[in-house]
Amino acid sequence: MLEVPLWLWGAFAVTVVVSLAVDLLSHRTAHVIHFKEAAAWSGLWVSLALIFGAVVFLVLGTTAGTEYTTAWLLEKSLSVDNLFVFAVIFAYFKVPRAYQHRVLFFGVIGALIFRGIFLSLGVAVVSRFTAVLFVFAAVLFYSAYKLLKDEEESFDPGGSFAVRMLRKIVPVRDEYAGAKFFVKEAGKRMATPLLAVVAAIEAADLVFAVDSVPAVLAVSDDAFIVYTSNAFAILGLRALYFMLAGLLDRFHYLSKGLAIILAFIGVKLILQASHKMISPDIPEIPSLISLAVIVVVLAGSVVLSLRRPAPAGAGEGADTQEAGSATAEEPSSPAVPEPPTGPPDRDPGP
Question: For 247, which DSSP code?
Answer without folding.
Answer: T
